[in-house]
Amino acid sequence: MPNLVLLIVCFLLGVLLRRLGRLPEATPSVLNAFIINVSLPALTLLYVHELPIDRSLAYPTAMAWVLFGLGVIFFVTLGRAAGWSRGTIGGLILVGGLANTSFLGLPMIEAFYGEEHLGLGILIDQLGTYMVLSTVGILIAVTYASGTASPMAVALKILKFPPFQAVVLALALKPFAYPAGLEIVLGKLGATLAPLALVSVGYQLRLAALRGRIAALSAGLAYKLVMGPALIMGLFAGALGAGGTAIQVTIFEAAMAPMIGGSIVAVEHKLDPPLVTLMVGLGIPLSFLTLPVWWYVLQGV
Fold first, then answer.
1. ∠ CA 207-212-213 to the nearest 5 degrees?
2. Residue 103 and residue 126: Cα distance in Å, rounded?
3. What is the pTM of this model?
4. Which end of the chain has fewer CB atoms at under 10 Å, N or C?
5. Alpha-carbon span 122 to 38, nearest angstrom
């Protein structure tokens, strides 16, 4: 569980550094920019390049798309009925509709299912969650940030999104082996994602922002930690009759806390940053309570 300890320590460091005033207020913006432009692309280039592409990926890769699509329907419907702002709805879609399938999901898979299933977690993360974020996630961010966005503007935004460029490049380079040492460099750069992201989240967390946001926060966390994975289980295991450890791990990944990458994109597009930060900052510790319950429930799948 060293990775889990790292997450907690970095999150608490972010909170402490803000209270001590040791870093400038613009620190989260700088950290987030580094993650989007360096850490995420490096991780994508490292893992997508080695992914096997076959029919066995259908359920694991489809999960993130289904979870996000259902999240769009849920948050748009509820948000309009509750009279929430476009920024709030867009922010909830990006953090409530995407699971933290990488640096929270992977250590959790290792802890509950064993390291032999980490490859499946990487497939879910890279071909599912990050692919969603790099495409329709950017579409949602641009649309809800600007109110209106031309197809050309959205397409350019997606094409200029560094993690998406990394996905395209990694797939194009699949027939070729990386030069000696490149994987080590990419691994070191990608390893900065978790600590920097958690420091950024901890630095931005302000519990005073709860005022006026409890309803939206509760709805976001309820969907991400309970309703969303329950819908995935009902569809995959119930309606489609899928089962086995791979399906258990897939649903388990759907139950992870809100995705930090999604929160970074939401904050950069000014989609209710205080709510987005609360979703991640409170969702991660809450998931430590809900994930063991999901593991127990999934034993029957």
1. 65
2. 12
3. 0.82
4. N
5. 19
Instruction: Name the DSSP class of 269.
Output: T
Token pair for 147: 């109110």
In a domain, 36, yes or no: no
Fill in the amino acid letter for 299: Q
Q: What is the pLDDT of residue 17?
A: 93
Q: Phi and psi dihedrals of 258, rounded to 5? A: -55, 145
Cα–Cα distance measured from residue 176 to residue 187, given in angstroms and rounded to the nearest whole number = 18
Residue that the structure tokens 């993130």 belong to: 64
3-class DSSP assignment, residue 99:
strand
Q: Match 């993690």 to its residue by tokens.
A: 163
Closest listed residue to residue 260, CA positions, set 206, 193, 215: 193
Dihedral (Cα; 168, 170, 173, 175), 10-degree rounding: -110
Structurally, the chain folds into a number of domains equal to: 1
Confidence of residue 281 (pLDDT cuts 50, 70, 90): confident
37 belongs to a structural domain? no
Instruction: Measure CA of the first residue to CA of the last residue in the chain; give whole Å.
Output: 25
In the structure encoding, which two tokens stand for residue 64, read together? Answer: 């993130």
**pLDDT digits over 43-70, tens only?**
888 877 877 766 767 898 899 999 999 9
Whole-angstrom distance, CA of residue 292 vs CA of residue 194 = 22
Does 196 map to a domain?
Answer: no
151-159 helix and 162-172 helix, angle to the nearest 10 degrees: 60
Residue 143 half-sphere exposure toward CB, CA atoms < 13 A: 14
CA dist., res. 213 & res. 298, Å (int): 32
Is the torsion defined by CA of 164, 248, 286, 79 positive or negative?
positive
Q: Can you give the residue range of the structural domain that contains 247?
A: 57-175+209-300
